């Protein structure tokens, strides 16, 4: 047999093996309904027995991680509660909070530590908060203690940003970029002023 004819036969056989439907017979042993009900009842009873243990294992503190690119504010620190300035509004985080992700706007992160400790307040410019079952991660672009902020310096910076916004003329991409950057400064410094006003 020539190599060409042999190759043709092999090709047809291979094609047939790839396209021929393969039928596999599976025999399923159907469990009686009574056995199925008994199995479900055992599962329910096991879950009910485990519930008190799960409740006892719930956390009574929030394990807080608070990070910035240049500094670590808190690492695996147990606290009673945290409040963050989410884009949708202030969000309080207590132990066993539902897992969630929240974008932060300029505002104040408040940390209530152990009983008897003074509440700590940090101004953040932006960032994200990630609430996990076992911890809460705050990732901020900038964070500074509220008491360390110079109110007069904030007023000067706000006035400068407002003047930059007012000075923008034209619709060129460069002008629009300058206006956007200056407006971000206005938003941040206004939020900073508001935070300082409420802390008096």
Automatic annotation (TrEMBL):
Gene3D superfamilies registered for this protein in UniProt: F0F1 ATP synthase delta/epsilon subunit, N-terminal (2.60.15.10)
GO annotations of cellular component type: mitochondrial inner membrane; proton-transporting ATP synthase complex
Main location: mitochondrion
SUPFAM superfamilies reported for this sequence: Epsilon subunit of F1F0-ATP synthase N-terminal domain
Recorded superkingdom: Eukaryota
Stored PANTHER family: ATP SYNTHASE DELTA/EPSILON CHAIN (PTHR13822), ATP SYNTHASE SUBUNIT DELTA, MITOCHONDRIAL (PTHR13822:SF7)
UniProt protein name: ATP synthase F1 complex delta/epsilon subunit N-terminal domain-containing protein
Source organism per UniProt: Cyanidium caldarium
């Amino acid at each position: 047999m020539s190599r060409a004819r042999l190759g043709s036969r092999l090709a047809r056989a291979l094609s047939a093996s790839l396209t021929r439907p393969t039928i596999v017979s599976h025999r399923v042993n159907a469990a009686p309904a009574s056995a199925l009900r008994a199995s479900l009842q055992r599962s329910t009873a096991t879950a009910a027995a485990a519930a008190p243990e799960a409740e006892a294992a719930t956390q009574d503190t929030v394990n807080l991680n608070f990070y910035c690119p240049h500094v670590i504010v808190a690492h695996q620190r147990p606290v009673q509660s945290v409040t963050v300035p989410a884009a949708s509004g202030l969000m309080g985080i207590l132990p066993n909070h539902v897992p969630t992700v929240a974008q932060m706007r300029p505002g104040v992160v408040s940390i209530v530590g152990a009983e008897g400790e003074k509440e700590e307040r940090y101004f953040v410019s932006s960032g994200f908060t990630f609430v996990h079952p076992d911890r809460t991660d705050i990732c901020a672009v900038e964070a500074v203690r509220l008491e360390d902020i110079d109110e007069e310096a904030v007023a000067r910076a706000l006035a400068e940003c407002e003047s930059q916004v007012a000075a923008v003329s034209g619709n060129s991409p460069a002008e629009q970029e300058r206006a956007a950057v200056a407006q971000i400064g206005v938003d941040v410094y206004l939020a900073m002023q508001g935070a300082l006003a409420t802390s008096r």
